[in-house]
Amino acid sequence: MGINREADYSEYMSRQEALWEGRCRRCGACCGGFDDPCEHLRPGNTSGQYYCDIYEMRFGLRRTVSGKEFNCVPLRSILHKHWVSDYLCAYKEGLTRTWPENI
Ligand code: SF4
Ligand code: SF4
After folding, report:
1. Is residue 83, in this structure, part of any structural domain at all?
2. Is residue 10 part of a domain?
3. Which of 52, 56, 59, 89 to mutate to test the pocket of ligand 1 (most atoms within 8 A of CB)?
């Protein structure tokens, strides 16, 4: 019983994580895409979309293409801040508008 509950919780958390990640529009704005991009920001296969080439280990000291150093941090910790073209961000939108359950 205990094991099943742990497995259920783990599955639930995985689904929640996938839902959260799936909301990203891959616009690249939070990675400086419309300003001075992080050197790890790469264009994706779909026009206007980007991805991080070190996503699984992205947090920590990083550099922009112009050479400025900054800390890559979880998005939740910068949601209250401003960045260039942040109006594109789905998570910022979620602060003021209820998300549909399935996007
Ligand atoms: S390291 Fe951080 S800032 Fe740089 S592209 Fe990846 S997620 Fe964006
Ligand atoms: S600004 Fe928001 S929607 Fe755009 S890539 Fe960053 S997290 Fe995703």
Report:
1. yes
2. no
3. 52
Per-residue model confidence as pLDDT tens digits over 4-30 = 888 899 999 999 999 989 999 999 999
Quote the number of domains for the chain: 1
Q: 71-99 burial string, b = 16+ CB within 10 Å, else e?
A: ebeeeeeeeeeebeebebbebbeeeeeee
Per-residue confidence (pLDDT) for residue 5, from 0 to 100: 86
CA of 88 to the centre of ligand 1 (A): 17
Query: The domain containing residue 80 runs over which residues?
Result: 25-96
pLDDT of the residue at 100: 66
SS3 63: strand
Q: Identify whether 19 is part of a domain.
A: no
